[in-house]
Write a structure and sequence with these properties.
- It is found in: Cytoplasm, Cytosol.
- This protein has 2 domains: 134 residues, Serine Threonine Protein Phosphatase 5, Tetratricopeptide repeat, CATH 1.25.40.10; 136 residues, Tetratricopeptide repeat domain (Serine Threonine Protein Phosphatase 5, Tetratricopeptide repeat).
- The radius of gyration is 24 Å and the shape is elongated.
- The chain has 13 helices and no strands.
- It starts with a helix and ends in an 18-residue tail after the last helix.
- With 278 residues, it is mostly helical.
- 70% of the residues lie in helices and 0% in strands.
Length: 278
Amino acid sequence: MISSMATGRVHGVQRVLAKLDSSLKAGNYYEAHQMYRTLYFRYLAQKKYTDLLDLLFDGAIVLLQHNQQASGADLAILLVAVLSKSGAVVSDEYVLEKLPKLFSLIKPDVPEREVFLMNALQWSCSGSQEHRTGHPELHKNIAQIFWKERNFAMARHHFLYSTDGFGCASLLVEIHKMRGYAAEVDLFIAQAVLQYLCLQNMSTAQAAFHCYTSQHPNIKRGPPYILPLLNFIWFLLKAVERAAVDLTVNTIWSSFSLLRDGVEVPPSTLGCSRMGIM
């Protein structure tokens, strides 16, 4: 009896797979989407997580590439749900490849895109006390996608939660050259460095500072720098590196506030309003 039931389930899945294949070949993507969802529930009930993940990823790619945005995004969201339900270990396969690939194929104006990203980041930090806001490599890949889309505010946001200080600095140089005031050249990197420090990300703060000050054509090599704020940031990084100061949000921002009060702040409010960050 048990054997016959199992055989029946296998045949049932095979029939749905055959119908799915026919729907895809005929270009009937609505029906194909329904077949994918049917298989999703069957595989999930049987706990065939590996087969299900492969099915959903391939299906989402096919639908998105054929401009079936809502259906493809739906399968992408289901894929992340399976990763969570199955207790899948966070791996490079998904963090570096599959999740960024799906995100890049979902168009920016699709509402489900934000849901997919939020769920993907939440899964990527599962079981980790260190990456509570999402895996830094996933943030990095998402930042690069936003950058290509010219969504500078979101690209900057995700770079701040990554460990790619060089990428963040390169982005900031581009933003400042395109949209910033000349007098804001130091403020762009100062704000980013202070935010990295607030996130307890010392090494990335250092990388971003050194990359920005060496790449930006309007900054003469230092230290010392001509601009006082850059010297302050350089000394702050040295002090934090040597554990000479307590690395807390209050300490960092109070230090910055004291210096900021002594300099003239341009009308774009620390270079943020024109970037769409504030």
